[in-house]
């Protein structure tokens, strides 16, 4: 009797499109595998499990240590020459003014080996791991993002496809070329296909002789488009599927020398002006079938993997940019005297510097957490990589902007250099997956993961006697949560003693986040796809949770290693956790009737402005 | 063709703000950025260029110091030196290491390695001694061309242009010889990342001063290391008499 009652209670609590929350009222943080139904996908991703209200620590605690002694030693030797080159040879102001990298600098960068950092040494590169790459890219980001994009467009995405998907012949042929002086570019975006990458119109049709594809189309905003010899191009190819012909995207390696490839003039940009950005046109280009990359019809997967794989690089570069801006602001605040005091003695300035420091610390922690996980062989890093890119680019804007503010009028002057950096980094919120799309991607992927487990559970309910244990445990946990006794995972063993309070708060937030996701699914079901205001709130919460976990992990490591900056780091981590968990606390309100009304109001207003072609209301005095 | 021995020293990086240890026994070196003495970079560059011009057959880089001196040697290898010799000296022996000790080591090594040209930086930026080249030449009884801003090979030996107070002086020396490199001798190349990777494969030999028969016993004792006195504010003086009075007061006249 008791059993049936529990089942009834549990199924009443859960309802049509609910999912389960694995509630740990006491006990240690456990992996998601312990109680989840067998057939739904398992994952070690912190973010995916967050959506289930579960704290999955394996990718976050302890902070990754991916460098072997040899790799660490190598990195110690590689960083100084790169630093020296960017301090003494590269002239970012001149690059910006000329909208071109100086020839001598480009030659120096090739000689330095900067264009093939992750290519295997046998094929002409330096064979660096992701973490080593991140450290060097940090140096570049601290000095010149325009050069950073020239390097990144080349190796982070331009020929990355060959590294990830190339067959041995493609690797043997192309990798020595792209490390030997030939530039590469990534050609996906088209005039009518930006975020909607699946809708590209460039087409590649198999020629009658079956030996070539004939490529036609045009691409826009292509970095290195005007200088690249070797391009990764994405085009629709007709595929036979179930007796019908459908279009699927295929990735190709295309050489300018194939003929029919041309590029437009360099675009006149707000920032990263020395990076070459052009349109690229393909007119009846004959691409050998051997140059298909990753298999016919797999282009979308190839593109997404390439972009995912390179994302941590942006976070690393921007961590360097933020560190540099913070240094300028700090130096100024410590010396400039007004009203008889140094700027840094005023609370307002202290708060600015503290917030800038927190943002830089989080960005850097994310970059090395993602690169470290990738180096350890982790496959499930896509949400975390997306979060690192979104966070890094958003916070870089804030940090450099505040840096300018602290420097006052001087900050506004070209000579100070910060205005150029601000112009340079603006694009990072837009390209390689706009932040807006990536936030939705995080929210939807997380919800889908949560939902898939829910569907399995619903199946369990259809056959309760086979899954009684599961149902009992879930129902029991639910009851505990309802009574308010649930505290979430026990993180005490994972963090420094000083940070346990913050960690407990995070654990509680993770729990409640899961409840929010459940409530969202209950309310909207599959229709959640169209509820972007809600999705954005959930994405913000996911970012708050992951960033908090990342800094708690890093600061705990600092304390464990007794780094000189351990106290400072723990202060940063605790402050970040304080504000992030508070923001997460207001998430539940995002689904309250009041918030939903507000959201609808915003939607209508936004729509009205678009229809009216601007602000519908006229100037107050109507003259 | 010559076999060139180049002496390189690991010093605190020129851009670092030096801090004196609270116990006044020396300067803070722990966790501080170190790099190759800039004049030694110029020395290595000159040796490598000689090899590229086929005036030298082999460049051997030498450094006397603790384990970390190997990093400095690797930089020399990355710049183009063929092999390296690390004379490991650490702890109190390193604290009291003087140019005379180093000169004796270089002299012995040049004989063991059959080098006929020694190039070192004119002075190290930490102790500013400007003694090692001169002492090494004297120990070997070789001619010396110090403060070199240009080195040319001639049939008889070397023609060295030296930077002196009054301008430039040209001397001719026979070989073998010792050169100390001055600032305008050349502009050192940047170590490229591929060369750094290649340098890992070049041979690095470790020897001790004892192996070379050099006694490292201290000839000096550091009594104290202090910051230079803080600069006092000046004052404007109304007339010459007051100036003379103040100078007398300060014991300056």
TrEMBL record, chain A:
EC number(s) on file: 1.3.8.9
Domain Acyl-CoA dehydrogenase/oxidase N-terminal positions: 81-182
Keywords linked to the UniProt accession: Acetylation, FAD, Fatty acid metabolism, Flavoprotein, Lipid metabolism, Membrane, Mitochondrion, Mitochondrion inner membrane, Oxidoreductase, Phosphoprotein, S-nitrosylation, Transit peptide
Membrane topology qualifier: Peripheral membrane protein
Superkingdom as given in the UniProt entry: Eukaryota
ACAD9/ACADV-like C-terminal domain: residues covered: 497-613
GO CC annotation terms, alphabetical: mitochondrial inner membrane
CDD domains to which the protein is assigned, alphabetical: VLCAD
Name this polypeptide is given: Very long-chain specific acyl-CoA dehydrogenase, mitochondrial
Provenance organism: Vanessa tameamea
UniProtKB/TrEMBL annotation, chain B:
Coiled-coil region list: none
A molecular-function term among this protein's GO annotations: electron transfer activity
InterPro entries according to UniProt: ET-Flavoprotein_bsu_CS, ETF_a/b_N, ETF_b, ETF_beta_N, Rossmann-like_a/b/a_fold
Origin: domain of life: Eukaryota
Keyword Metal-binding attached: no
PROSITE patterns: ETF_BETA
Keyword Transport: yes
Domain Electron transfer flavoprotein alpha/beta-subunit N-terminal: 24-216
Primary location group: mitochondrion
GO terms under cellular component: mitochondrial matrix
Keywords: Electron transport, Mitochondrion, Transport
Subcellular location field: Mitochondrion matrix
Gene Ontology BP term (one): amino acid catabolic process
Family according to the record: Belongs to the ETF beta-subunit/FixA family.
Described purpose of this protein according to its UniProt entry: Heterodimeric electron transfer flavoprotein that accepts electrons from several mitochondrial dehydrogenases, including acyl-CoA dehydrogenases, glutaryl-CoA and sarcosine dehydrogenase. It transfers the electrons to the main mitochondrial respiratory chain via ETF-ubiquinone oxidoreductase. Required for normal mitochondrial fatty acid oxidation and normal amino acid metabolism. ETFB binds an AMP molecule that probably has a purely structural role. The electron transfer flavoprotein serves as a specific electron acceptor for several dehydrogenases, including five acyl-CoA dehydrogenases, glutaryl-CoA and sarcosine dehydrogenase. It transfers the electrons to the main mitochondrial respiratory chain via ETF-ubiquinone oxidoreductase (ETF dehydrogenase).
Subunit structure: Heterodimer composed of ETFA and ETFB. Identified in a complex that contains ETFA, ETFB and ETFRF1. Interacts with ACADM. Heterodimer of an alpha and a beta subunit.
The protein's name: Electron transfer flavoprotein subunit beta
